[in-house]
């Protein structure tokens, strides 16, 4: 039984009324729901999970539970995410070719959905201010096979001068008081107070002030939180409308299980009913608030042309012909997705790391970059060693240079970093799969031993 703060209970009794508040508090003590999303970027194969219970109004999303050692997770075919938390990215309207920013991105649930919608076309900037959480973000983006992402570890204030009037869509899943996660993470109750709610509101405004600078005129802002507090939800949306000239767009969600925003909890703007709320008593997932807004005014076309000129700069770190040959000897053996079809023209090398940048930034740009695009691998003395991110990207297509591990024991040993004896006529670098789910590179030597190239940092 959750011990909810007296001040919290009094607040929501006043906002909801006694009957609905009673349902709300009772639902807070029910079991949390777990769910998965299917990665449509990957080559379709059969997965082991039941897909019988779909989440309302979402595609490729189902209730269910997975393990971090399951081959579906390791290979980036599924992502474990709270059902309600899937909606902000799904409602973003992102399409291939857009420039998109996920400003508060870790651990990557919303980022991976945005990248999936882009279909490796356009640009996805995923930012996380925490260095530790940025590492987890990178691992999830890599696992999902996204090749057009720039991952940064910065404050919004550092990003806004670099990307002024730049993005078509910005998603801000703002740091909040976390009321919607009380039943999932009861420790969040310990630091809750009304003063903390107001502290979060001020922080959200600071973040959004910078986000607004980076959004193109007529661009879309998706604002979400995992709290119930009107101060952080409806009142923030009203502030965006009144202070920054935004319009609230209709999410077009009409499911009876999903609640609408409350104008009376803010400035009585009837447009606030276009925002949506998820309550535990609705039975969808944890607490979540989502608003889709559009930045009014200006001419986005002028900005677009200005930005295109920057792309004409010559690549200063291009591969030499001999380096291209070393890389090509390895990766040209595989079936390459469109994002890699002209890799030799796009690839760059820095500190022996070969990568295809998602965006070429000026050398004067002082941002802490965690990852830029696809890392193809590392150049070593007279040879090229393919990287793990490349393996996850190649998993988007059916491949022939693959060894499928025969047993669960072999799979678990490989995840631990062990070498495996395999039956295969293939030699050299190849992709490693289990149950036809590609998750790593390996290398078979002359005696049929599969050398392990699964990254040490990911080993179980």
UniProtKB/TrEMBL annotation:
The keyword Repeat does not apply. S-adenosyl-L-methionine binds at residues 104-110, 128, 173. SUPFAM superfamilies: S-adenosyl-L-methionine-dependent methyltransferases. Residues 1-296 form the SAM-dependent MTase RsmB/NOP-type domain. One of its GO terms (biological process) is RNA methylation. Keywords: Cytoplasm, Methyltransferase, RNA-binding, S-adenosyl-L-methionine, Transferase. The keyword Zinc does not apply. InterPro entries: Methyltr_RsmF_N, MeTrfase_RsmB-F_NOP2_cat, MeTrfase_RsmB-F_NOP2_dom, Nol1_Nop2_Fmu_2, RCMT, RsmF_methylt_CI, SAM-dependent_MTases_sf. The active site is at 226 (nucleophile). One of its GO terms (molecular function) is RNA methyltransferase activity. Belongs to the class I-like SAM-binding methyltransferase superfamily. RsmB/NOP family. This is Putative nucleolar protein. It comes from Lactobacillus helveticus CIRM-BIA 951. The lineage of its organism: Bacteria, Bacillati, Bacillota, Bacilli, Lactobacillales.
């Amino acid at each position: 039984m959750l011990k909810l703060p007296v001040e919290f209970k009094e607040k929501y009794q006043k906002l909801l009324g006694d009957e609905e508040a009673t349902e709300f508090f009772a639902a807070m003590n029910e079991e949390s729901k777990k769910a998965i999303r299917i990665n449509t970027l990957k080559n379709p194969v059969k997965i082991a999970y039941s897909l019988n219970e779909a989440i309302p109004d979402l595609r490729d999303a189902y209730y269910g539970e997975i393990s971090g050692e399951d081959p579906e997770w390791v290979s980036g075919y599924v992502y474990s995410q709270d059902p309600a938390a899937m909606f902000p990215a799904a409602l973003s309207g992102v399409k291939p070719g857009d420039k998109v920013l996920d400003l508060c991105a870790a651990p990557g649930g919303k980022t991976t959905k945005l990248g999936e919608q882009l279909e490796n076309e356009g640009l996805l900037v995923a930012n996380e201010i925490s260095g530790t959480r940025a590492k987890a973000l990178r691992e999830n983006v890599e696992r999902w096979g996204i090749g057009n992402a720039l991952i940064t570890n910065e404050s919004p204030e550092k990003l806004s001068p670099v990307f002024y009037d730049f993005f078509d869509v910005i998603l801000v899943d703002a740091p909040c008081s976390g009321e919607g996660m009380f039943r999932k993470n009861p420790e969040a109750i310990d630091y809750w107070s009304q003063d903390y709610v107001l502290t979060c509101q001020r922080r959200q405004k600071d973040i959004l002030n910078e986000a607004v600078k980076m959004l193109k005129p007529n661009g879309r802002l998706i604002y979400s939180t995992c709290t119930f507090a009107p101060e952080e939800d409806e009142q923030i949306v009203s502030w965006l409308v009144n202070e920054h000239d935004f319009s609230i767009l209709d999410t077009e969600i009409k499911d009876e299980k999903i609640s609408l925003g409350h104008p009376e909890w803010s400035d009585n703007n009837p447009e606030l009913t276009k925002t949506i709320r998820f309550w535990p008593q609705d039975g969808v997932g944890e607490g979540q608030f989502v608003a889709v807004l559009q930045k009014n005014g200006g001419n986005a076309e002028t900005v677009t042309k200005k930005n295109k000129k920057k792309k004409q700069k010559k690549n200063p770190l291009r591969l030499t012909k001999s380096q291209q040959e070393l890389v090509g000897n390895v990766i040209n053996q595989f079936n390459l997705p469109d994002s890699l079809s002209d890799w030799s023209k796009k690839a760059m090398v820095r500190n022996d790391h070969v990568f295809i940048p998602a965006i070429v930034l000026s050398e004067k740009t002082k941002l802490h970059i965690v990852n830029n695009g696809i890392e193809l691998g590392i150049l070593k003395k007279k040879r090229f060693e393919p990287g793990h991110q490349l393996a996850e990207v190649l998993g988007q297509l059916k491949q022939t240079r693959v060894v499928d591990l025969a047993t669960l024991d072999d799979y678990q040993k490989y995840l631990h970093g062990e070498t495996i004896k395999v039956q295969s006529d293939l030699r050299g670098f190849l992709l490693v799969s289990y149950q036809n789910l590609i998750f790593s590179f390996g290398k078979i030597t002359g005696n049929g031993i599969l050398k392990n190239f699964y990254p040490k940092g990911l080993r179980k």
